[in-house]
Amino acid sequence: MDLISLVVTFLITFVFGLLLYFKRSFTYWKRKGVPYIEPRFPFGTIENPATRKDYIGIRIKKQYEELKSKGHKHGGLYFFARPSYLPIDPEYIKNIMSKDFQYFVDRGTYYNEKADPLSAHLFNIEGQKWRNLRAKLTPTFTSGKMKTMFNTIVAYSDQLIQAMSDFSEKRKPVDIKDILGCFTTDIIGSCAFGLDCNSFKDPDSEFKKYGKMIFSSVTLRQALRNIIAFANPNLGRFLGITIINPKASKFFMNVVKETVKYRETTNFTRKDFMQILIDLKNNVKAGDAEENGNHDNKSFTIEEIAAQAFVFFLAGYETSSTTMAFCLYELAMNPEIQNRLREEINKTFENHSGTITYEGVMEMKYLSQVVDETLRKYPPASLIPRVFVEDYQIPNTDITIDKGTRVFIPALALHHDPEYYPDPDVFDPERFNDENKKSIHPFTYIPFGEGPRICIGLRFGLMQAKVGLAFLLKHFRFSVNKKTSVPLKMDPFTFILSAKDGIWLDVENN
Ligand code: HEM
Q1: Whole-model pTM above 0.80?
Q2: Which domain of life does this protein belong to (predicted)?
């Protein structure tokens, strides 16, 4: 047989084998007796990643609605050939996130300690390693530690006000997400990396540049790598795939190395996340024995410090600025809610000698309601991933799902389900007043996730968003500029929920 015939035979066998593999894989949910969305070759139930029109959370919301309208409590999807499980009934979601957590400890997201050390952070790592790391890092986020970082947030709020004044004086519309990105970058940069990132004064600041590089829509090549890594993490690790932009990775790793070296050689300390991580490197526990849990007492390496500082940045910067941006958009669309909130903020400033205190922020009930409703309507993580780490029998059924199957917990779909939130598109902070909050169906409001793997930075994220919003609304009035597409369209290519063409607001001094 000549070479050409050999290649052709190989290709035909390969394509035939692939088709058979997909054909067989696509029968998984039918064989299990789980209702499913009909898959299509080769993407399964997702859209073609290169040309998709819907944001992933919205796509899953439609599939949730389709399955729920037929009375199903759960359903089966396919990510390419790989089966993924979609729980619909909140009782099933409770089992996954909390009651039967030991079957769902991991997220199944990709990390590669060797080739991509920054990816081996708390969000991604698995099993016992995750338990140890979570125990070590939990004391980082106590309310006591939050109070020590409060002043940093207030200091950057002053810079936010100055930057915003420029827009109000010149009567220029502001791309609100962009300016809030400076605010959260500077705060996380300072608290997690111990650096003044200077994003407001320097629009081309390196931190902002590399932060954007990680979140902005990815190139086709990177998208393909992400797909392989997500579809089959073991194959991704075997191929040495990296998912973090190498330039950004180098930048963050160097920043951490330099900061640690500086602090260790000069004995300089600061009350921030970075100091807590350095203490863990030098085996000083971050809290007392009780709050510290059962960690393995191993000290951190420099790569581990960098990975955790990186995840605080990664998980804290975009989620918080997106939340604040959507909140201001809704306040601009609903002036009466904006005015009521401003009254509460002004009163609180008066009661605290014209300034804002940690206690003052905690007192503002309507601010809490407004932020809670923003996170309902716009959960930044619209889909929360988990994976079956053992074979698992769905309670009260004879269905057993195999180890390794992915789970997508549909936060956006639950938050917009009219059974739990009537008129889900209406922005109504009263859903979260003291009375109504009590009747929210458990496990239908999960902007920070739930159970042992709930967001570790919840308190910090809320504090940062509330302080920034309080300062902004005290000083300015917001309305929607005509450059904003109303209703908002969501970017189909990002994972964190984000408005496609930005949110442009007009801003006036109060
Ligand atoms: C509005 C702001 C935020 C939102 C909406 C948010 C949302 C989430 C969600 C949905 C998860 C997954 C939870 C689960 O799987 O059950 C998560 C995990 C996580 N978040 Fe946040 N987050 C926010 C702010 C922050 C901040 C400010 C930080 C750090 C400074 C942070 C650090 C993390 C980390 C490290 C994890 C992984 C926890 C683990 O696996 O143990 N987040 N977040």
Answers
A1: yes
A2: Eukaryota
